[in-house]
Amino acid sequence: YEIYTNFKRRNIEKNWILFEIQKKELAIYSHSPKLDIVKLNLHNKKKYASQYKSFNYNNFFWEKKYGEIRGGAGVFEYNKYYISIFQSSIKTIKGLIYNTGLLVMDKKNLKPMLISKRPILNYTNLSNDLFIKENILNKQAYRAVYPTGYINNGNHLYISYGVNDYMFGISLFNINSLMKDMIKLEVHDKYD
After folding, report:
1. pLDDT exceeding 70 applies to what percent of the chain?
2. What is the mean pLDDT of residues 81-98?
3. Beta-strand (E) ranges in 17-133?
4. Which pTM was predicted?
């Protein structure tokens, strides 16, 4: 397969989030600096992804505080929304700190509408004892807590996560509570 490389921020985005809605196989190619969603054609060996939707939106407050948004654990349906579980990382003097947040998209057109005010999952949610072991797989990571999967069970959201590339955990969240802790996004342009 050829790599999809039509975006300017980096040549190749490796953290795609695959999901399916209304029998369309899609992927969030990039959350930032704009939301780029591609349509998948997994049977076409020459070009298996093409641009589907793209939105410029203001997420700079998140990136300034919690780092560049990249990849995540998936997209799930909730009421009139699709919600993406994303990860970000920010450089500190001691190394990278990873954070998990939510991006809420309108169910009709996937337009980004809301973003978490603060990380729903990061090292501050966990015991310091989990970080005693050095991250031997990623020497740049200082406090790596990253989402790896989810189960949406009504109003309960279970998110699985990795810790410093050597430990696994699961956290339970109330989706209604998470939805109350969001910031409205300003969308500047929309391209279909």
Report:
1. 83
2. 90
3. 17-21, 24-30, 34-40, 49-57, 68-78, 81-91, 96-106, 112-116
4. 0.86
